Amino acid sequence: MANRWLHGPVWDVLLGCGVLYFVFFIALGLSGPALTGKISLAGLAIVAIMTGAPHYGATLLRVYDQRESRRRYAVLAVWFTVALVFLFGASLYWHSLGIFLVSLYFNWNPWHYSGQNYGLAMMFLRRREVPINRPTQNLFYASFILSALLAVVAMNGARPEGSTTGAKVIGPFYYFEPMGLPSVWSTGLLTVGLALYGICLSVAIGSLLRRSRFIDILPALLLAGTQALWFVIPIVMRHWEVGQSFLPFSAEHGEYVFLFIAAGHSIQYLWVTSYFARKTDRYPGNFRYWLRCVLAGSALWNVPPIFLAALAVGVAAYTEGLALLVAAVINLHHFVLDGAIWKLRDGPVARVLLRNRQEVGTQPVDSRTNRHLVRLCISLIGCVGVSIALLSWWENEFGFVRASQRGDEVRMQLAAERLEMIGRPRGQYHRHLAQVALARGDQSEALEQLDKSLEVRRHPKSHFAKGHILRSQGNWEEATVAYETAYEIDPQPVKLIYRLSEALIHAGHFDRASEVLSEGLQRHPGNPVLLQEKAALSRARAEAG
Questions:
Q1: Looking at residue 361, what is its pLDDT?
Q2: Domains and CATH numbers, the chain
Q3: pLDDT confidence of residue 365
């Protein structure tokens, strides 16, 4: 019988079977809002650097580091990559394509996680020579598919009714667009899917227990539990609004919890890929292998975006949607490559993961000089990527967020400048600095910060704030231009309609003021503020003769 474990029972149960996430799950629930108050989403970026980047880097090393792998997966490694780069470039100018790629990534992601859990569960069963017939395997497989579909249904519900289109909800250029399933459909699909999931999983487990010992199927059961804890249980609790005070089930902290799930998935991936690398290559040791993965993944995630930002390709800054588009393209590339290289029926994968055989020396090795030169270049680029990622994390969390909490304006400005230097400028940071400058009466500094914000993105909030300062200075013509630009982007907010019409009246543009107020009253019939401003327009016209 093949060795029952990869790295040993303790590491396999903690990392491979997901028990470590069980521990984090309980810790998150017990800590509650106290933890989210101390560590922001930006602060958790260090988790992505430590686990997420090497997770992607491991796939790159698996595909591109050996000549035989590059040849075997040439279509995906080269041509599919070229196609994705082309789609990425087209998305910079055709935003609908970018939104489609982001939405495809979001909908594919649950199955990617589920497929890994299922594959590892089957690996453990086969290494233990657990007898599993085709119907049982199909039911077990169906439970993972159904749990992934539950997540897809949950995230594709209709947007809440009555939501406004005010400036506060002006989002990035690229975002996830749900399918808009009606609430009745979502509830029905979740109910049916949950019932089928429970039936498939319980019947499959019952069949396995009848054919083998509990201890032999325990790793597979733990992975099925991890799957339920990642998707099924939180989805049920959030949809039916049960236990929302418990942080892992809270819809309010869904993004926060997902980062820990992603970290669990990445750790799981590194656990199995490190074992495979140890069996098939001249393994450098756990730490050096992790470091190589960190450098490769960081080079992929952090270096290309800084060149895009520096060259001003497209119209979206990295922090205004480009980051999400980059994430979508990288993940789609990762999903497809993973689907090709980790099939258990594949020769090398089956021999190593199922039969515990050594594969050293089976792959052609590149020229030693060329190999070292390529690895040196990748290492240098990876060091740049890691530096960018670490600096971005530090300046966001400690340079701006924490400095803002203690009112340290100098440190906030330094953080904003450093983020701009590495291609990660944030328009909202400059708007915040403008508010701080206004609070101490420095309108010139406030205007300068707003102009910097507009260089990142022409957001209506920044135009409106600029118009407000110019209005206070009595500069009605320039205030009109600022308000008008904001109005072109988002004509919905009543306050903007009122301020724009007021500026137009003072600047003597009565006809345009009348048009703006008429459009505003069509959107907000009977609004007293707009009716009052319409009366002011009539008086101004009368006074003008």
A1: 47
A2: 9-35+51-161+178-280+303-361 (no CATH), 458-545 (1.25.40.10)
A3: 47
* pLDDT at position 312: 45
Q: Is the model's pTM score more than 0.90? A: no
Q: Rounded to whole angstroms, how far apart are CA atoms 231 and 359?
A: 36
Please give the Cα distance from 330 to 385 (Å, whole number): 15
pLDDT of residue 55: 93
**Cα distance between residue 151 and residue 235, in whole Å:** 7
Answer whether 269's CB lies under 8 Å from 46's CB: no
Output the CA torsion sign for 408, 409, 414, 415: positive
CB burial class (10 A; 0-12, 13-18, 19+) of residue 312?
Answer: exposed
Q: Count the neighbouring beta carbons within 10 Å of the beta carbon of residue 369.
A: 8
- Residue 321, amino acid: G
Give the pLDDT of residue 378.
78
| Pick from 127, 126, 148: nearest CA to 137 | 126
Predicted local confidence at residue 208, as pLDDT: 95
Q: Is the dihedral of CA 379, 381, 384, 385 positive or negative?
A: negative
Q: What's the rounded Cα separation, in Å, for the pair 123 and 344? A: 8
Token pair for residue 75?
């279509």
* Secondary structure percentages of the chain, helix, strand, coil, to 5: 75, 0, 25
Q: For the chain, how many helices (H) and strands (E)?
A: 27, 0
| Structural contact between residues 190 and 154, judged by C-beta atoms closer than 8 angstroms | yes
DSSP code per residue over 453-476? HHHH---HHHHHHHHHHHHHTT-H
Q: Compute CA distances 473 → 36, 449, 467, 485, 535, whole Å.
A: 41, 17, 10, 19, 24
Q: Is 264 helix (H, G, I), strand (E, B) or coil?
A: helix
- Rounded to an integer, what distance in angstroms lies between the CA atom of residue 81 and that of residue 75? 9
Residues of the chain with pLDDT under 50: 1, 161-168, 312, 314, 360-365
